[in-house]
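Hey everyone, long-time lurker, first post.

I ran two proteins through the pipeline my lab uses and got sequence/structure pairs for each. Pasting them in order. The first:
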Amino acid sequence: MGAMDPNVTAVPSPSRSGALGAEVSERITLLRFLLIVGVVFIYTYDVEIKVAGEVLGVSRPDGLAAFTRDLISQVIARTAVPLFYLLAGYLFFRNFEWSASRYATKLKSRLHALLIPFVCWSGFNLVFLAVAQNVALTKSYFSGVNNPVLEYSFYNYVNQLLVSRVSLSPTNFGSSGI
């Protein structure tokens, strides 16, 4: 009764110190890799490669090819982002013993680790885009159909820094008509 079965593998448990075991860390790394590939599939779903005005490959597949592309990029890969959030939540609350002060301390540490770099990077992108929209050599690449960054209202800046994703693409950046 007291002897352990040699065929049963013990499930690694997280240490009380907060460090992940080597096996758990490897599993999370593999999962992150698969999720990153999923995000790439989402963003490359309907990409056409044009060379000299001609589209390379099949731009609009049909039949089995369309079904397979939709299944991988629009069904399976769409689980990547929610799984990233699930993984982040697991790692955030792993070994967490609840108290209001510990929760506040943990949120404050994440604020410094995530929000401040996010706002700084978004601000850098806004400055880069403003310069690129006003330099003659690059203006045509960054003008697009949206308002130029220098014509933004305060609302537009806050929206771009905190709400919308900041993109250097002229068709994704800014909001026209505001």
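...and the second, right after it:
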Amino acid sequence: MRESGLFHHLIAEEYSRESLAKIEEILESHRIHEILPIARGLFTASPSQAPDSLTGYQNVWIRDNVMVANSFRLRGQLAPAIACMKGLTLLLETQRPRFHDIIADVTRALKEDANRRPHIRFTAQSLGELPEKWPHAQNDALGHALWFRFLLANEGSLPLTAEDYEVFRFFPDYFEAIDEDSGAWEEGRKVNNSSVGAVVAGLEELRRYFSASAPASAPGVVPISTGRAEKLEVLIQKGTERLASTLPFEGPPERRVDSALLLLLHPLNVISSRPMQGAILKLVQARLKGPYGIKRYAGDSYFCQDYDEWFSPSQMSSDFSDRLEFRDAFLQPNCEAQWCIFDPLLSIIYGSAFSPIPRTKAAWPGKFTTLIAPSRRSRLTESALNFTS
């Protein structure tokens, strides 16, 4: 941080509620955390991008919108969270033919064409499909969407309608029909535990909805049949067994440590085993933490060293899922990009350990070493976060 920055005078060895409130006041006064929807409650990946930006970040991703909407929900701002989920439901409604085609394909050949799968990325202007080839095989994005829709329904924040249910009712059949996906980083296909966990979380929220007899208060929503309930149990069990046998790794043997697994701890909270939670946290910090941020995974070539020298603006964020080996060839040892998106996840996960609601300190095993330089660590970081179980 620059010595003359906005927060320079507030950097301290210890923080109180009052000093944290002053930091929050500055953040709010400069609208640093403000994020506004582009249309129908949905958010672009980067609102600063022009409609014709070569980065592609002016578009709408399903998974990213769930993350943003849930952050509003957790801060008690339900209106934007609900608006976003309604917008996502409209997008997913346009994909129903793709769901049905994959489910009905007894040859299981259609799923191999990612553009035949339900799309997970849309244009912000019309919220329509984008024409270019893209790795739409992203089970995690659909799992997150299912999880958040039924989480809102189960909390009573957004009651399920018959029209909503027609969009989501075939998700279990779709998940039964597919397997490998491109995962959170939209790259080569494999079985990714961050995707399996997201699907399990979504299916569990769906099961909780029907287990609680919620459909009685939702006119037009037909109670789940015995056969479909049994299928739901089988899918959840299959996913749970996969996680139990292969975590804390992402997709062994191809991928072991991956920061995407942090999403299983927050926001999905789908891993109940304390030792497994600790293993994921420790591995991410041991293998992926760098001096500036945290890598997505070891060997990640996306935005590696001198990235803008090797690729043109139109290539930098393009689909490399079928030619990842070429991009990887540019990566020099220990030159993976270090991202700022995982530090907040670690902060939330460990911070929740000190909140009496919903978790206690004992809920998160292991030791947390802050990314802040030692001279800047507060006593809270040194003492309170160095817990073990």
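Reply from user beta_strand_b:
Welcome! Quick read of the second one: The two ends are 34 Å apart (CA to CA). The chain is about 45% helix and 0% strand.
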